[in-house]
Amino acid sequence: MSCIRKVFEYSLPPQSKILVANFKDDAFYRFFGNISLAKNSPINPDKLLSDNCFKSLWYELDRIDNINRQINYILEFCSPYLQKRDTIAEQLINFKEKSLDPIKATARDNDQTERNIQIKQKNISDILQKK
Q1: Which domain holds residue 110?
Q2: How far apart are CA 109 and CA 96, in angstroms?
Q3: Disulfide engineering: 100 pairs with which of 28, 88, 105, 114, CB 3.0-4.6 Å?
Q4: Could you give the percent of the chain with pLDDT greater than 70?
Q5: CA–CA separation, 68 vs 123, rounded Å?
Q6: What is the number of domains present in the chain?
Q7: In 10 A of CB 117, how many CB atoms?
Q8: 108 within domain boundaries
Q9: Sign of CA dihedral 11, 14, 16, 20
């Protein structure tokens, strides 16, 4: 289930272009972190920045006329900030063996208790449900 924190309206003039990034699985949280702000927080996150933090990226992308090169530029730009996914989370997300219990198999493969893996899986599920 998605949770929209801030609704905004926009319009694009004719001949405008827009590039939308869809984050798969936990990619949004791997990039931006898993910070939970209170709904009624007195601090507006937009006020913490003196300028749009992606403005320089926008200017660079505007100079690139090929969409594939723009995407590659974005990926290169983001790579230093992207947090490495937890190994066990990776195994749980990519678990494909239908005949095995993912919790038991992952616990066995990582020499962990099933309870530890259950907790990890719950945390992953919580993150993915925030999307």
Answers
A1: 87-129
A2: 15
A3: 105
A4: 67
A5: 34
A6: 2
A7: 22
A8: yes
A9: positive
Are 95 and 115 members of one domain? yes
Structure token pair of residue 106:
């992952």
Task: Determine, yes or no, domain membership for 16.
Answer: no
Residues 78 and 97 in one domain: no
Q: Please check whether residue 77 is in contact with residue 64, taking contact to mean a CB–CB distance below 8 angstroms.
A: no
What does the pLDDT read at residue 44?
A: 60
Measure the CA–CA gap between 129 and 17, rounded to whole angstroms: 30
- Answer whether residue 7 is part of any domain: no
**Residue among 103, 98, 100 at smallest CA distance from 124:** 103
Q: What's the count of helices (H) and strands (E) in the chain, helices before strands?
A: 6, 0
* pTM recorded for the entire structure: 0.48
CA distances from 57 to 18, 23, 33, 76, 78 (A): 14, 18, 20, 11, 10
